[in-house]
Amino acid sequence: MNDLTCRWLLGPGTTLVFAATAWMAQAAEIQFNRDIRPILSDNCFVCHGPDANRREGDLRLDTPEGALADLGEYAAVVPGVPDKSELIARIMTDDDDDLMPPPDTGKELSDDEKKRLRDWIAQGGKYEAHWAYIPPKRPALPEVSNGAWPSGAIDHFILARVESANLSPSPQAAAATLARRLHFDLTGLPPSPRLAKRLASAPEHFEQVVDELLASPRFGERLASYWLDLVRYADTVGYHGDQDHAITPYRDWVIKALNDNLPFDQFTTEQLAGDLLPEATVNQKIASGYNRLLQTSHEGGVQKKEYLAKYSADRVRNFSNVWLGTTMVCGECHDHKYDPFTQRDFYSLAAFFADVDDDKTFSGTNTLPTKREPEMQVLSPLAVSQAKPTRTMVTGRIEPRPIRILPRGNWMDDSGKIVVPAVPAVLLELKTKGRATRLDLARWLASPNNPLTARVFVNRLWYLFFGAGLSRSLDDIGSQGDWPTHPALLDWLAVEFVESGWDIKHIVRLIVTSSAYRQSSLVGPELHQHDPDNRLVARQGRFRFSAETIRDNALEIGGLLNYQMGGQVTKPYQPAGYYAPLNFPKRTYKADMNPNQYRRGVYVHWQRQFLHPMFRAFDAPTREECTAQRPVSNTPLAALTLMNDPTFIEAARGLALRILNESGSSDRHRLAWAWQTALGREPNREEFAVAKALLGETRKRYQADAKAADELLAVGMLKLPGGLASSEAAAWTVLGQALLNLSETITRN
């Protein structure tokens, strides 16, 4: 399309012809990163973006140089003059041959998107560097009208945004809700009923409780579950055979590091390069097991060269997602289609890991666990006095293998150039003498000027405590990612994180002691109308617990939870025959029939290809790749699991015994106690009536059918004390099952 065609399309017969000044007067201020980049990224960058091999018409729209370039008497963007901008002409035309995006892509701009693009050009067509690639600077606290509401810096940013929408924040949640929220968020476990009374008695107790929970050993276990999702920790190799491997000390190191509040920069360094530190300690070598967490194979006939390429790409994908919040996967085959990362960047990052000894991976054994040298005999970082040494994989260093750019990711094609370790040019420069190492890479990540590391981590912490990140794209902070709801707050938190010495507990404390955190999660009509997705954070989030927390909560309510930390995995009850397809080697599953059965979910055996069915039902990942945010499904399978999984039946029986032994003698008192124990509140009138009716019906049933009562009470290891009527225990067990199956029981409000 030439300029003449453009003038024809937007000529005197159309309502779209306005002077640039008129557009500027009528339109609100447009921000490129917030308003324009998402439109261009979704609709244009595939053909007119960073990937030179896919670029069409020599037109590039991801840079100002490309957008403003003279394409032969016309340009895609003419600042201030939308009528002379080819971009506007192409999105407005009725000619399918010229229309952009082309109809065969299935993409179509909305009227609002077209208007935004036109307004942007009318206002000067100004480009901005991607917000996530600009080093954060501490912004000033915004002014607010309601000066009594903020309890800290975070609240100024939240309240300013809420007030700008002529809304008010939600009231503070009830003490019982706060007690439950805080305890689950910081420990993954329910509170005692006494905590709600303590919080209700005096407001200053809240911060005291926060400090107590941050000091609890349960804090590290709770946060570790999330970190293990990110680094794709598992107890098996994945791929063919999915054999067990020795790596549990790494899991324990993560828990201890988080409990000890190891600064995040050191936490990062020891995982990426603990083996390269001067006089590396045993625990630092254990931490370097991070480099061994990927899926591996020693299947007969494996092409070593192919799998070394797989391992190399896996490490780049995980590293970039964990610490940079960026999807580099495109770079394995071509330049990134949306972000300024090249194929060379991908393989240059891979070169950092070229010194990791993977050679012995291919000679693993069919014993369980399979040996995958290099390994060490170590004591777990969480070892108790009677603990025995165990083996664990660590990082062994070899002379770096040559890393080539693989054309289209083809491991058999050796025509690509050999590259040395380097970081993406668009980010902070890495300066080093000689060949850069993983230690250099770790220090580069922790540089105060690195624009991504701190932003990515504090954004994920916010997600853990609100149910959504400030940028909701937890695993892709690039052009396809979500513009932050509160960009200034995200930058403030990132700077605070770095300047605090990368203090994780400090940031967590700031978040959970804020007034924003303490808001009710109830949605009033006004907020529902004006902010249904809670992008203003004018209320708290409401979300289902993780699979591990659902299990831990049930065991704790049932009085069964074993608090032993570290060491061997726990193997919960599992359906017979579930492992039948595992034949290399053939194995059977033996559930723990001792107190190990009742340990926390963070210690559950993580079988990649055959993840525990309860964990599958509640959307736990296989951990084949980095998972920054688990999906949340709502299917009958979840309810059936809560009703029929032996762990939950046994937990319900444990709750029944507690009710009969620890509460009053009347049904009314017992039901009130059960609700307080499971939910932290009294049952309302309707709930009491339903529960009483259920209890009455099941009593009659089990009094008439002793065999059915005995069958229910025989599930699991927990035995009934002598002298207790089986019909009474069974009836209260059913009541316990109903409580454990409530949406409220598995939901964080």
Strand content: under 5%
Radius of gyration: 29 Å
The total count of strands amounts to: 6
What can be said about the biggest beta sheet?
2 strands, antiparallel
Shape: globular
**Number of DSSP helical runs:** 30
| Helix share bin | 40-55%
Question: Could you write a compact summary of the structure shown?
Answer:
This protein is mainly α and about 750 residues long. The chain has helices at about 5-10, 20-25, 30-45, 45-50, 65-70, 85-90, 110-120, 155-165, 175-185, 195-200, 205-215, 215-230, 250-260, 265-275, 280-285, 305-325, 345-350, 440-445, 455-465, 485-500, 505-510, 525-530, 545-555, 615, 635-645, 645-660, 665-680, 685-705, 705-715, 725-740; strands at about 375-380, 390-395, 405, 420, 545, 745-749. Among the domains are: about 5-130, no CATH class; about 245-445, no CATH class; about 645-749, no CATH class.
Keywords:
749 residues; mainly alpha; two-stranded antiparallel sheet; two-stranded antiparallel ribbon; 42% helix; globular
Describe the overall structure.
It is built from 30 helices and 6 strands. With 749 residues, the protein is mainly α. A two-stranded antiparallel sheet has the order 1-2. The radius of gyration is 29 Å and the shape is globular.
Outline the fold blueprint.
Layout: H1 3-9, H2 20-26, H3 32-43, H4 45-48, H5 64-68, H6 86-92, H7 111-122, H8 153-164, H9 175-187, H10 193-201, H11 205-214, H12 217-230, H13 248-259, H14 264-273, H15 282-287, H16 304-324, H17 343-350, E1 375-378, E2 390-393, E3 403-404, E4 418-419, H18 438-445, H19 453-466, H20 487-499, H21 504-512, H22 525-530, E5 543-544, H23 547-557, H24 613-617, H25 636-644, H26 646-662, H27 667-679, H28 685-704, H29 706-713, H30 726-740, E6 747-748
Antiparallel strand pairs: 1-2, 3-4, 5-6
Helix pairs in contact: 1-6, 3-7, 9-10, 12-13, 14-18, 16-17, 19-20, 19-21, 23-26, 25-26, 26-30, 28-30, 29-30
